[in-house]
Amino acid sequence: MGLRSTLFPVKHVIALDVGGTGMKAALVGADGALLHRARRPTGRERGPDAVVAGILDFAAELRAHGIDRHGEPASAAGVAVPGIVDEAEGVAVHAVNLGWRDVPLRALLAERLGGVPVALGHDVRTGGLAEGRIGAGRGADRFLFVPLGTGIAGAIGIDGRVEAGAHGFAGEIGHIVVRPGGAPCPCGQRGCLERFASAAAVSEAWAAACGDPDADAADCAKAVESGDARARQVWQEAVDALADGLVTALTLLDPRVLIIGGGLAEAGETLFAPLREAVRRRVTFQKLPSLVPAALGDTAGCLGAGLLAWDLIDGTTDRTDTTDPTDSTDPTAPSEVTT
Ligand SMILES: [Zn+2]
Fold first, then answer.
1. Is 212 left (phi over 0), alpha (psi -120 to 50) or beta?
2. Which of 126, 187, 264, 288 lies 20 to 30 Å (CA to CA) from residue 2?
3. Per-domain residue ranges for the chain?
């Protein structure tokens, strides 16, 4: 990498995170600086064709903003979308909440953005990429990112990239069976992890236990903190199921850092203290990874989309520090070697 001019024009990329209800976007500079941020509704009630048109219009407006305010159009774009994503082909295969099927989103965006390179990513893997590189797992060579929300997903980080698997399904830790024959899961199995340890599952269990249908996982965490015995039982059952799932994952993957995010992780040490203990009790020969809360919150997907875009321009190796974060080497020390 040569010297970067701070003068006008400013080289940048478009980052766009498409969610079920809202889209978050940014223009990201070469140093990761957010030059511009915007958000708007996804508008899924208007149907899948209108959602795709809305994504293309938003991207085109971001390009125009770059020309207007930063002196040149974006050099690349990264877009994260939910559901099943074929990252290699750039196709949004299916998303239940958006209703689309086989949308060649990468090609459509490239056409709309003047032919610049475009990366299409899966929302959780893209968020995981950001957590692993610039968030809670900063610089970790091997990490596993597990957001605990309505469901439970996962992103497997290996040497600065996130593993998608042969068919785009790698990391689906929420559908590891932890209670054989247990509660049915929408995926068709019974006893899947997300039926016991997602924020939605804890909300459901606590609402049933306390008799208030509106009580949720955050209320359960508060009741745990105030010493409520029923809440502690609900919470511990979730923690035990989660530890069972995580130990299966770490036995397979041997991650250095295990990053837990999503709504349930907002309980902080109320979750992390018993979870670390439950994982520690279960491992025998396996090495314990450091178990840490996610750092980027709901901006992870957008930041990850920006990383995907920059990777298209200058390659993953240039922007990825894949050292052991526990290494004592001062990362701010000047490097002897410059290339
Ligand atoms: Zn399942």
1. beta
2. 126
3. 12-127+298-319, 139-294
